[in-house]
Design a protein that fits this description.
The complex is a heterotrimer of chains A (576), B (404) and C (285). With 576 residues, chain A is an alpha/beta fold. Chain A has a domain at 29-236. In chain A, 56% of the residues lie in helices and 11% in strands. Chain A contains 23 helices and 12 strands. In chain A, strands 8-9-10-5-11-12 form a 6-stranded mixed beta sheet, sandwiched between helices. In chain A, helix 6 packs antiparallel against helix 9 (202-228). Chain A starts with a helix and ends in a 7-residue tail after the last helix. With 404 residues, chain B is an alpha/beta fold. Chain B folds into 2 domains: 9-151 and 289-373, Rossmann fold (3-Layer(aba) Sandwich); 157-283 and 378-394, 3-Layer(aba) Sandwich (Rossmann fold). Chain B is built from 12 helices and 14 strands. In chain B, the strands form 3 sheets. A 7-stranded mixed beta sheet of chain B has the order 7-6-8-9-10-13-14, sandwiched between helices. In chain B, helix 2 runs parallel beside helix 11 (320-339). The longest helix of chain B is centred in the N-terminal third of the chain and has 20 residues, at 49-68. The radius of gyration of chain B is 22 Å and the shape is globular. In chain B, 61% of the residues are buried. Chain C is mainly alpha-helical. Chain C has one domain (6-121, 128-280): ABC transporter involved in vitamin B12 uptake, BtuC (Orthogonal Bundle). In chain C, helix 1 packs across helix 9, helix 1 runs antiparallel to helix 10 (242-260) and helix 3 (70-90) crosses helix 8. Classes of the chains: A alpha/beta (576), B alpha/beta (404), C mainly alpha (285). At the B-C interface, helix 2, strand 7, helix 7, helix 8 and helix 9 of B face helix 1, helix 4, strand 1 and helix 10 of C.
Chain lengths: 576, 404, 285
């Protein structure tokens, strides 16, 4: 980890920790307690929702579970307060993981639906708590619970507890931000399917983020239970927590680990600025106005905007030095079967995209996969790379059947693909896009190694000078080559090129063909899907033709082209 | 003597007003010196703000009045008021600010049970007296120096239902069956559970018991179930506008309310609604005889009516909320005058030993948890106004308990 | 748990139907602006309540029939909606940023309401409230019936406009793919303004219906957010009929629960139902 950041953490944590010794009026300690408390809530929310884009409206549920865990254990079962805190973290975390285990399995449950689910869950929990002996109606009163003497006074104690939670959550958020988990979450944010196929274990990562997020919300709730000392369902399970954590994160900037902290501090301080009795109502309106103005003029959030301004002024860190990756090895010798598609079928709502397709790819060859539009070529690529699971059949790669495994394992086994319509991660630079593939693909490189190799591949495809650009700044040709560099960055044993030449000019096509040959020379096997017949004939060792989801011909390119069945299926005259 | 130098602007105005009035009461010097700071919060914004406005008005009226006369021990009074936005965690922090930063001399309580509990915790830590006016669950108040001016006695969950059933039994049609429907808002729920208990002890047959979550919007099914159960008497534990919503729902299905008691309704809207005809509620003060003879009542009622109208409040009458609030200030003033001190321990000791004459009648604080007499009365909506019907001694002269 | 009489159950379900209709009406504008303009308009609720208060005031002070007040309120809100969208477009506000902006707007509107009308409860006493119909043993109060009819009517009209009229199709195209639609000649800025205006006008209509049936208080704004958001999300963003159907399901399932067992369990039933639907059939109902 960055030494400088670590130092700042330790120093600021220590400095804040000695504040109680200044014997300031208790109010300041309580005020800062509230600020830290909201920093914990907002930052923990952001770890899941800001990083991955899975917008949760249920943070209040985890907070409430934590609050009630402490209230019941300390208030009704007389546990010492501090011992309740690990439970206050554990109960919501278990609940969150349980919820996520079910919900994250559902492919189609993205975006707003996840938000709805988490909101609904909050109401369910609130009702259960209100109607069972956990609360039952009168609320839980904690005045008899002794406040541990961590600080010189009760308010100092709460201050220190909140400080500890805050330093911990900020550290965790920072760590995740720079770790594989964070990169994976950000990739999920932009395009979850692509991330999965690139080898990001999306299911596991989302669960981890959810568990961490809910644990922190829970422990913050546990401490807060004793702070307010009277816990009622109506106070705990309302719209305030779920809504405010979103507002704070967005205000501060949800793409950065420190953003929510900035937003939380701003909004909490703002709530206090207008507490004088005379101007209460007007003050509230002023808060609304300030929020509006800030976000209109700082759309990336306060921190996001500041970083943007800073970035343009500071010198950029140097690009990594390119390092050539090792030559790719695959088991077995040249000519041996690498991939076997065994009787695979795939339907979509009744439409049979693939029907009992069997084929094989041999090590070191360039295998062409052609057919008219709608014949199933792209579906085949999607099935091999793991994006779809077939209803029947096996996909044996180096002897291992990929079908029963989670989708990301295809990448780990050494399969990579490009997308016909490029699907880069829109918020990541060209270099970051390519680095990610190296990190999560078959080679599982460290970030530094992956970045170095990524530079090599960017040079290989000719994009090295656009390394820092965002995908939106690239033209189609460049984006296609970005697809290529991403596919190569994981040093795959099998590369699936899905219409990589579509939309390119003739000279760009020549360039691409040279690249494809070079890729094979370096040790990859290639399945090449194309409409451009000239390129197909030039490059492919063998050809397989699909029509209506079935294989209608396979063999040497020239033979296959002259096969009457194929001709009648679609082959027009080859382009010059 | 630095009389003019240290005079605050407030007291300067008070002084000139007094001079202009021609010095109504002789020998009362205008207050002077360093202001006495009385600090507290109110829920001026947020869900509880409807009632908090009443308390704000009462406080303003009282403090102005104090400053027109002798202030507190001759010093002008300054009310440090903050908005706790209906949130207990804010209330706690603001009370800490009031005590440790604003360094007030005296505290006065916020609005509603949860916020009072927060304030109580702070008062306890700094050994300050907390006089408060709207605490709903006496058993939760465990601080030695708290003083409640909502004079319900220490066990309202027993005394109030008993009083209610006494009223009904002495009335034109004593009920045999009872339905209890209640919100799960803590202060309301606690009373409803008590009522259920007492009803059983007194041999009433419970035909329906329902609880709903606070925040429920649809009272149709509840009204339907009430109609089907045909109770002689309904105890409705309703808070905020739930009472109105329930009555509306009952009207929609042509179910005129039988004898019905509302605990903690919003009194104003009930007067305007024809469906609330002859509904019953609890009160400690109403703006009619004989309570108007209580200490401070007449003048305060007049001022409050005017100021409430000016503030745009739809209901300008003084009732339990305003009276409890006024009484809190009266208690504060009495204690200070009685001890000639601002020392919290001295004030507390005095309050526990003395009876204070207030707008609610004589109040004492020597019972369990500093609670005293139960000064509750039962009132009824009659011809568009609230009138006390029980105890007989406090009832408006000439009124009878009416059936709906 | 005692089994209720048919009459009780029927009346309760009817009650749930009516409140579901109101959820749908509140959700209609929200769904349109969220689904088609990618703006999460939290201020929709505050706006509805402002409309309710305006209806209350115009009706109480000037004796205007509550529904007629819409003649003033709806166009006014339409203009407000257009202005709001103009600001969003000018500043290129993203969906999540719009949540923040509209929250700020909510706070401002709520403060304004409190400043003008105080936080005390206001109830519109209108002649509508006295009228009810009796069908068999069932009571159908007029304000609730009106709300339901308005809700269903608006939802159907909106659906029909979006589906069959050229302008509706243009709006849907714009919602799906603005750039492509523009290439086909769709005037995206103008349509977006119209849509935003319409959504806010719908808020005003919902407000009038609120005023007819409910007691008003500024803090009540927040009481509806959770349930209406749920109805909108499950009904499918941009789908005019979705929030209505979802709202009715929520309202009726809660009412049935309240009729049959302890009312406090009602939210559990409705939201568990929602969760089950989501998990078993994610997407639209």
């Amino acid at each position: 980890m960055n030494k400088r950041v670590l130092t700042i953490f330790v120093v600021s944590g220590a400095a804040l920790a000695v504040l109680p010794l200044l014997k300031l009026p208790a109010f300041y300690e309580s005020f800062l307690y509230l600020v830290f408390h909201w920093v914990v809530l907002a930052t923990s929310w952001n770890i899941l929702s800001g990083y991955s884009g899975y917008f949760s409206f249920g943070h209040g549920a985890f907070f409430g579970l934590g609050m009630y865990t402490t209230a019941v254990l300390a208030g009704k079962f007389n546990w010492p307060f501090l011992y309740t805190l690990p439970m206050a973290a554990l109960v919501p975390a278990l609940f969150g993981v349980g919820l996520g285990a079910v919900v994250f399995r559902l492919r189609r449950l993205r975006g707003e639906l996840f938000g709805l689910l988490t909101l609904a869950v909050t109401f369910v929990i609130a009702t259960i708590i209100l109607n069972t002996p956990i609360d039952g109606g009168p609320g839980v009163y904690l005045s008899a619970v002794p406040i541990p003497a961590i600080g010189p006074s009760p308010s100092a104690t709460f201050y220190l507890l909140a400080l500890a939670m805050m330093m911990l959550v900020l550290w965790v958020a920072y760590y995740i931000y720079n770790a594989r988990l964070g990169s994976g979450l950000f990739a999920i944010h932009d395009d979850e399917d692509v991330a999965e196929v690139q080898g990001v274990p999306t299911y596991r990562f989302k669960l981890q983020a959810l568990a961490i997020s809910s644990a922190f919300a829970g422990v913050a709730g546990g401490v807060h239970a004793l702070f307010v000392s009277y816990v009622t369902a109506g106070e705990v399970f309302n719209i305030v927590v779920p809504l405010y954590v979103v507002l704070m994160s967005v205000l501060g900037g949800s793409r950065h680990w420190l953003g929510p902290a900035v937003g939380a501090t701003a909004i909490t301080a703002l709530s206090y600025a207008f507490t004088a009795g005379d101007s209460a109502v007007v003050g509230r309106a002023a808060i609304g106005l300030i929020l509006i103005v800030v976000i209109l003029f700082m759309p990336d959030g306060i921190l996001g905007q500041l970083i943007k301004r800073f970035k343009s002024r500071r010198a950029l860190p140097p690009l990594p030095t390119p390092v050539a990756p090792a030559v790719i090895s695959a088991q077995g010798s040249s000519g041996e079967v690498l991939l076997t598609i065994d009787n695979v079928s795939k339907s979509f709502s009744g439409v049979k995209a693939l029907q009992n397709v069997s084929m094989e790819a041999r090590r070191g060859e360039i295998l062409g996969l052609v057919g008219p539009n709608g014949s199933g070529k792209s579906t085949m690529v999607n099935v091999i790379s793991g994006l779809y699971k077939p209803e029947a059949g096996r996909i044996l790669f180096q002897g291992e059947d990929l079908v029963p495994l989670p989708s990301y394992r295809a990448a780990h086994a050494g399969i990579a693909r490009t997308y016909q319509i490029p699907r880069p991660f829109a918020s990541l630079s060209v270099l970051e896009n390519t680095t990610l593939a190296g990190m999560f693909g078959g080679t599982q490189l460290s970030r530094a190694d992956a970045a170095a190799q990524a530079m090599y591949w960017l040079e290989f495809v000719g994009l090295a000078d656009r390394a820092r650009a965002l995908p939106t700044e690239l033209n189609l040709h460049q984006r296609k080559f970005l697809e290529l560099s991403r596919a190569l960055a994981s040093s795959p044993r099998l590369v699936l090129l899905d219409e990589v030449l579509a939309g390119l000019t003739p000279s760009e096509i020549n360039n691409a063909v040279t690249l494809v040959r070079e890729i094979r020379r370096r040790g990859s096997t290639i399945i090449f899907i194309e409409h451009n017949m000239r390129a197909v004939l030039e490059l492919c060792d063998r050809l397989i033709v699909l029509n209506h989801g079935q294989v209608i011909a396979s063999g040497m390119p020239r033979e296959v082209m002259n096969d009457p069945a194929v001709v009648s299926a679609y082959l027009g005259t080859p382009h010059g | 003597m630095t009389f003019f130098a240290s005079i605050s602007r407030r007291s300067a105005l008070a002084l000139s007003a007094t001079v202009a009035m021609g010095l109504g009461t002789a020998a009362l010097a205008a207050p002077s010196g360093t202001p006495v700071k009385v600090g507290g919060t109110l829920a001026l914004t947020g869900p509880l703000s409807a009632t908090a406005l009443i308390h704000k008005l009462v406080g303003e009226i009282y403090v102005e009045d104090l400053n027109k006369k002798n202030g507190l021990l001759g010093r002008p009074v300054e009310w440090v008021l903050k908005d706790d936005q209906s949130r207990p965690d804010l209330a706690r922090t603001l009370y800490e600010q009031i005590v440790t930063v604003d360094k007030v001399d005296l505290l006065i309580g916020p609005y509603a049970t949860a916020n009072i509990l927060s304030a109580m915790g702070v008062a306890q830590r700094y050994n300050k007296v907390l006089i408060h006016h709207t605490f709903g669950i006496p058993s939760l108040a465990k601080y030695d120096m708290h003083f409640p001016t909502w004079a319900t006695g220490h066990v309202p969950e027993v005394t109030l239902p008993n009083m209610m059933f006494d009223v009904l039994n002495a009335g034109p049609k004593p009920p045999k069956t009872i339905a209890i429907v209640t919100s799960k808002f803590p202060a309301t729920h606690f009373m409803s559970v008590g009522a259920r208990d007492i009803a059983k002890k007194r041999g009433l047959s419970e035909v329906l018991y329902l609880e709903w979550e606070f925040g429920n919007r649809d009272f149709g099914p509840i009204a339907s179930r009430l109609k089907e159960a045909k109770p002689d008497f309904i105890w409705a534990g309703v808070i905020a506008l739930e009472g109105m919503l329930l009555l509306d729902a009952m009207k929609k299905i042509d179910y005129p309310a039988p004898q019905m008691f509302h605990y903690l309704p919003s009194p104003g809207p009930m007067l305007k609604s024809p469906d609330a005809k002859n509904a019953l509620a609890v009160t400690i003060f109403e703006q009619h005889a004989p309570m108007m003879s209580n200490f401070g009542a007449t003048e305060f009622a007049k001022t409050f009516n005017e100021r409430a109208a000016k503030a745009g409040l739809p209901d300008t009458q003084v009732d339990t909320q305003a009276a409890a609030s006024f009484a809190a200030w009266q208690v504060l003033e009495a204690a200070v005058n009685g001890t000639k001190s601002f020392d919290d321990k001295v004030l507390a000791a005095w309050l526990k030993k003395n009876t204070v004459n207030t707008i609610q009648g004589p109040m004492r604080f020597d019972g369990p948890s500093n609670y005293g007499d139960d000064l509750s009365k039962i009132k009824q909506v009659q011809n568009g106004e609230w009138v006390v019907i029980w105890p007989r001694a406090s009832a408006k002269p000439g009124v009878k308990h009416l059936l709906p | 748990m005692q089994f209720p009489s048919l009459e009780l159950l029927g009346q309760s379900l009817l009650s749930g139907l009516f409140i579901g209709g109101l959820y749908g009406l509140l959700g209609l504008g929200l769904s349109l602006s969220w689904g088609m303009l990618r703006q999460i308009n939290l201020a929709h609720f505050a706006l509805s309540f402002l409309g309710a208060y305006l209806t209350y005031q115009l009706s109480s002070s000037f004796g205007v029939d509550p529904l007629i007040t819409l003649v003033i309120v709806a166009p006014g809100f339409f203009v407000f909606g257009m202005a709001m969208h103009w600001v969003f477009a000018r500043f290129k506000v993203t969906p999540f940023n719009s949540l923040l902006v509209t929250f700020g707007l909510t706070v401002i509107i709520e403060s304004f309401i409190q400043w003008v009308w105080t936080a005390d409860y206001r109830k519109l006493e209108s002649h509508y409230a006295d009228i009810k119909f009796k069908v068999g043993a069932m009571y159908i109060p007029l304000p609730e019936l009106l709300t339901l009819l308005i809700s269903v009517g608006l939802a159907l009209v909106t659906w029909a406009v979006l589906r069959y009229t050229p302008i509706g199709k243009a709006m849907r195209a714009m919602a799906e793919n603005p750039k492509m639609a523009a290439a086909f000649g769709v005037n995206e800025p103008m349509l977006a303004l119209l849509l935003s205006g319409a959504a806010s006008a719908f808020a005003g209509v919902a407000g009038a219906c609120l005023a007819l049936s409910f007691t008003l208080a500024p803090s009540q704004i927040y009481a509806w957010i959770g349930v209406v958001f749920s109805a909108v999300m499950i009904g499918g963003l941009g789908n005019p009929i979705g929030p209505l159907v979802a709202g009715i399901v929520i309202g009726m399932s809660e009412a049935a629960t309240m009729a049959v067992t302890a009312p406090a369990w009602a939210p559990l039933v409705s939201f568990t139902l929602l969760i089950a639907v989501l998990i078993l059939r994610p997407g639209k109902i």
